[in-house]
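Researcher: Next entry in the queue.
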Amino acid sequence: MTTTFIAGFVVSIIFTFLSLVHFYWAFSGNMMHEYVIPEINSQKVFSPSKLMTATIGFGLLIFAFIILGHIGVFELLFLNNIFKYGTWLIAIIFLGRAIGDFKYIGFFKKVNDTKFVFWDTQLYSPLSLLIAILTILVIYNHTP
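Model: Structure for this entry, 144 residues:
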């Protein structure tokens, strides 16, 4: 098994786990919920609906499918372009998430005194960067 396959499987496992967490939140779970939304003066920047949270969970599962398709787990030739360009899109999305919006999220955020900031600095942004790096590794070492 090559590093490309290992990177692809690791990223797909991360996406699957994150999708399950989003489905948990969408269906009334609230563990760690107060640490995942940026705040200003103890007010959430936005308040996602259950439908929006479930949609993110479904999108993360699609990302896992795209990565697995890119590394050749699925032999669906008619989807090769979706696997190829979708993997690029995933890398760009998560690199952008790691860099952030220069206000509330990412490595270059300006807000520094909320519950979210600690977790964003310690977990969310580094995880986004890891996902971007592993996805780029998959892109450069395997073409569907």
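Model: Helices lie at 3-26, 50-70, 80-99, 115-141.
Researcher: Noted, moving on.
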